[in-house]
Backbone:
């Protein structure tokens, strides 16, 4: 099957076989605030792992360390066979083409139209060969989130949920192999939230991507999660699939499912 | 001043200097952002022209009107164009345009980069394979350094024209004679230091605006503070640079 060969090729690019992201003993603190302590986790090829944790528990910090926006104090983060904290700027850029990042605050460029926002990663990532069809790619990405009519609007003219979807389109436009979603459905109505969750599933199936999803939205978690990580006190407190954790006897874990 | 705030002040001076130095170490390595540089030159230069032009015109006009009575008292009315042109070109036009730009451009850059910082747009650029320091800071500092001298030269010309109008309110000075006298009083050594210092004005305004925005603290309140302190620090720096410049021209006997 052709999808299988594609899987094999992708796995070959990840040095340690099945694992696309391998986090070992990660620690990060801001002054006296020890956010992550000895956090270890492996993300497998083709899986969606959801990170659950209380507000301020360091979920965003975790994925910012993965993409190299924050430098960890200790530990290693292996993404597609490369240790992120040791990469130089050029290697980081090359790694970031393959890793999509959805910001919790969307981070759309206020001074640019929706079209320019989506073109930005395309044009900036030194990928001249794909540049012929920028327009086509922009429209395709917008159609995926159902917002093709907003292409010439400014982000300020859009509603909160629309902005979230544009940000999602911008994340997906480079067709990354790994996607880090920071609260993709927060602030959306249940129906749109469900659509986005299904879109995330479609992306996973269609392009065989792997993803780390941060979410408080249990409906979304139920749809997208292959595996769930519970982040408490800066460590990986529990791992399991939705049903396992839901029926867990541990109080701290159970809280999230009530 | 409390010892602690003095220490903070010194730390900030150090940080701004390091930031300004980073412009040189990163700005001249490739990938050059020419497109963005041109866009910034347009915003910083062209968009400030009306404000700088009007101010320069009024300064020239007012200075001429106010200088006249004193000169008349000494019977030296004929010196009016020469005296006015020297003060305008040497000091008033460059410093006023730099101060206007410190207000308009410094606060603009501070607020823009500050809000980009707090809404994570700067991080988003970094993730999109763009060095935000080069894309945002280097282009803006460069545009300020190049455009403020241009604005200052235009301000020279416009303020001299204002002087011509001012000279003709009470007295009559013929157009050709005014310009002849104005340029006769000016020498190359008046013009050169006055233009050279505007490059430093522009650089300082760009660096301070970008620094304040780039390291804006979280939250919308931080954005307002960045814009505000960018104006204060940039204006102060304009005067300090002016002070240093006059000492240097003095040492080299360019006066
Ligand atoms: N740049 C930073 N400088 C200092 N402290 C930070 C920084 N970023 C995050 N923190 C701190 O790290 C902790 C974790 O923040 P983080 O944004 O990861 O929380 P979170 O789990 O994503 O929460 P939420 O669900 O509310 O988004 C917080 O206590 C925060 O104060
Ligand atoms: Mg967060």
Residues:
């Amino acid at each position: 099957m052709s999808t299988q060969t594609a899987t094999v090729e992708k796995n070959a690019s990840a040095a340690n076989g099945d694992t696309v992201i391998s986090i070992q003993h990660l620690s990060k603190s801001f002054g006296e605030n020890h956010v992550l302590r000895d956090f270890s986790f492996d993300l497998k090829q083709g899986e969606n792992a959801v990170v659950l944790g209380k507000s301020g528990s360091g979920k965003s910090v975790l994925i910012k360390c993965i993409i190299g926006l924050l430098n960890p104090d200790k530990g290693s983060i292996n993404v597609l066979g490369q240790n992120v904290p040791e990469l130089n700027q050029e290697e980081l850029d090359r790694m970031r083409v393959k890793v999509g990042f959805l910001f919790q605050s969307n981070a759309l460029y206020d001074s640019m139209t929706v079209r320019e926002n989506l073109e930005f990663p395309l044009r900036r990532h030194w990928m001249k060969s794909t540049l012929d069809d920028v327009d086509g790619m922009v429209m395709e990405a917008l159609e995926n989130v159902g917002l093709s009519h907003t292409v010439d609007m400014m982000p300020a003219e859009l509603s909160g949920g629309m902005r979230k979807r544009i940000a999602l389109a911008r994340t997906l436009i480079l067709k990354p192999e790994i996607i880090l979603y920071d609260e993709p459905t927060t602030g959306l109505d249940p129906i749109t939230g469900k659509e986005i969750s299904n879109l995330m599933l479609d992306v996973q199936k269609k392009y065989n991507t792997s993803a780390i999803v941060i979410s408080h939205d249990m409906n979304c978690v139920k749809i997208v999660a292959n595996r769930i990580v519970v982040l408490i006190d800066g460590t990986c407190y529990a791992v399991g699939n939705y049903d396992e954790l839901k029926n867990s006897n541990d109080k701290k874990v159970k809280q999230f499912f009530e | 001043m409390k010892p602690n705030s003095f220490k903070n002040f010194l730390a900030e001076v150090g940080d701004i200097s390091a930031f300004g130095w980073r412009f040189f170490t990163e700005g001249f390595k490739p990938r050059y952002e020419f497109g963005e540089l041109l866009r910034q030159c347009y915003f910083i230069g062209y968009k400030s022209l009306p404000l700088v032009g009007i101010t320069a015109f009024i300064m020239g006009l007012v200075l001429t009107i106010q200088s006249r009575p004193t000169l008349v008292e000494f019977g030296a009315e004929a010196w009016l164009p020469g005296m006015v042109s020297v003060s305008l070109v040497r000091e008033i036009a460059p410093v006023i345009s730099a101060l206007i730009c410190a207000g308009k451009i410094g606060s603009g850059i501070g607020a823009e980069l500050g809000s980009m910082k707090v809404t994570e747009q700067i991080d988003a650029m970094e993730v999109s394979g763009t060095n935000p320091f080069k894309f945002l800071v280097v282009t803006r500092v460069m545009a300020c350094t190049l455009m403020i001298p241009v604005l200052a030269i235009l301000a020279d010309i416009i303020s001299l024209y204002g002087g011509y109008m001012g000279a003709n309110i009470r007295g009559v000075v013929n157009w050709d004679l005014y310009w002849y006298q104005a340029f006769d009083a000016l020498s190359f050594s008046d013009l050169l230091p006055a233009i050279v210092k505007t490059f430093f004005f522009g650089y300082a305004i760009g660096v301070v605006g970008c620094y304040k925005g780039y390291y804006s603290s979280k939250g919308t309140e931080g954005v307002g503070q960045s814009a505000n302190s960018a104006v204060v620090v940039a204006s102060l720096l304009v005067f300090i640079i002016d002070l240093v410049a006059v000492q240097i021209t003095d040492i080299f006997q360019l006066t």
Observations:
- Residues 190-207 of chain A form the longest helix (18 residues).
- Strands of chain A lie at 19-30, 33-44, 48-52, 74-79, 82-83, 99-102, 178-182, 210-214, 227-232, 235-240.
